[in-house]
Amino acid sequence: MATVCKLYRGEKPQLIPPNEWTLVTYEKTLSNDRSMMRDLSLIMPPFDGDFIWARNLRWAAITVPDGDLRPRQFMSRFIRDPHGIRDDTGADDRTATPGRSWQTVAWPFKGQAGMQVGVEVWHDHHLPWPLEHAQFVGETNDY
User: Fold this and answer.
1) What is the pTM of this model?
2) What percent of the chain has pLDDT over 90?
3) From the CB of residue 124, how many other CB atoms can be counted at a distance below 10 Å?
4) Distance (Å, rounded) from C-alpha 73 to C-alpha 54?
5) Residue of 102, 107, 106 lying closest to 134 (CA atoms)
6) Which residue, 14, 32, 34, is CA-closest to 24?
7) What is the pLDDT of residues 8-57, one digit of tens each?
8) Distance between CA 26 and CA 15 in Å, rounded?
C-alpha cells in the first residue's frame, strides 16, 4: 500500500545562512497519510518499506557585489535522523546562476520505520540566501 506525505513552503522565504547545513522547514502539509509529518520539517514513515523521496527547491536570484567573480555553490541533501545520528544521502551539488535556481531531485531507497527524514541545504554565498520555495514528498510502499 502506498502512503504519501507532502510538505510545502511557498509563502515566505526561508533565509539560509552561509556555509552551514540548514534543515528546510515548511509552511503547510498538503498530504499526511498515517500522520507521517513531524514538526513541518520531517517525514517519518510508520513501517519499513521501499521509499521514494523527492524535493523541489527554488533559490532566490543571487546578487553579487561589483567585481566579485567568485563562483557560488549551493547543495541539498536528504538527511536521516537530523536531530540524532545524522546520515545524509541523495546529495546534489550545483553552481549558482544569476537568476533563480530550480532543483528537483528524487531518491529511491529501502528505509526503516520511525526513521525521520528531512531536507538540508547549504551555500557558500557571503550573505544569507533566501530559499523561496520548497516541496518535500515522501512516498512509501510497505512490505
Assistant:
1) 0.90
2) 50
3) 14
4) 21
5) 102
6) 14
7) 998 899 999 999 999 999 999 999 999 999 999 999 988 888 889 999 99
8) 12
Beta bridge partners of 99: none
Residue 89 banded pLDDT, cuts 50, 70, 90: confident
The b/e string for 81-113 (b: 16+ C-beta within 10 A; e otherwise) is ebeeeeeeebebebebeeeebebebebeeebee
Q: Count CA within 13 A, CB hemisphere, residue 17.
A: 5
| Cα dihedral across residues 137, 141, 142, 143: positive or negative | negative
Rounded alpha-carbon distances, angstroms, from residue 13 to 4, 108, 139: 24, 28, 25
Whose grid coordinates read 536528504?
78
Which cell is 104 given?
528537483
φ, ψ dihedrals at 66, nearest 5°: -55, 135
For residue 125, pLDDT over 90 is answered with no
Please give the single-letter amino acid code of residue 97.
T
Cell matching residue 24: 528546510
